[in-house]
Specification:
Blueprint lengths: L1 H10 L3 E2 L9 E2 L7 E2 L5 E2 L1 H6 L3 E5 L10 E5 L21 H9 L8 H47 L4 H14 L6
Antiparallel strand pairs: 1-4, 2-3, 5-6
Helix pairs in contact: 3-4, 4-5
């Protein structure tokens, strides 16, 4: 089976994308962990010609025993300007005040649909601004926790983690899979 897989890779001239900064993508998470590179990305010569600057980067294994991988390519993607309502905003203190303040100003238009559209846009703008302010602290906590897990994952490849570091890694992974970060 493995030889057949290798034959297909060779016949298609597929290459294994090198993983930057890590050797393994899976760990059983035990005190003396088993580790393996189970997750891979293969690419063809034509893909490499189209995307000459690309990297396969590891993320922290915050909610899995696998290390998620992100393929970074040189092509730039346009940012979406689309509004995305976050349901949890309704539970935050001051939500109704923000909506009321954004909805109250008069809109100069004769068409009720234009008035409605303008009020929705004002409300979306106010909620987006408020959401950015309130989420920035949670985003920072999320990024810090991800970075700590990523560094502990990398350290685990080189040496056995102390019991304190294993507990910290397990604690952070549990926290990140909870409702606060979902």
């Amino acid at each position: 089976m493995v030889n057949r897989f290798r034959h297909i890779l060779n016949s298609l001239a597929l290459q294994d994308m090198p993983l930057q900064g890590r050797r393994f993508t899976w760990s059983n998470g035990q005190e003396d962990p088993l580790m393996a590179r189970l997750d891979r990305v293969f690419f063809s010569p034509s893909w490499e010609d189209t995307h000459p600057i690309s990297d396969l980067l590891p993320l922290s294994s915050n909610i899995s025993d696998h290390c998620p991988l992100i393929l970074s390519c040189s092509s730039a993607r346009p940012r979406s300007c689309r509004f995305s309502f976050e349901h949890f905003w309704t539970n935050l203190p001051g939500f109704q005040d923000v909506v009321k303040a954004a909805w109250e100003p008069e809109v100069e238009a004769n068409d009720p649909l234009l008035v409605f559209d303008a009020k929705l846009r004002q409300t979306a703008k106010a909620l987006r601004q408020r959401g950015q302010r309130t989420q920035s602290s949670n985003a920072l906590l999320f990024q810090v926790a991800n970075e700590v897990i990523l560094r502990l994952d990398g350290a685990m490849e080189a040496r056995q983690l102390t019991s304190e570091k294993r507990r910290l890694r397990s604690f952070l992974k549990r926290q990140m899979s909870g409702p606060c970060f979902s």
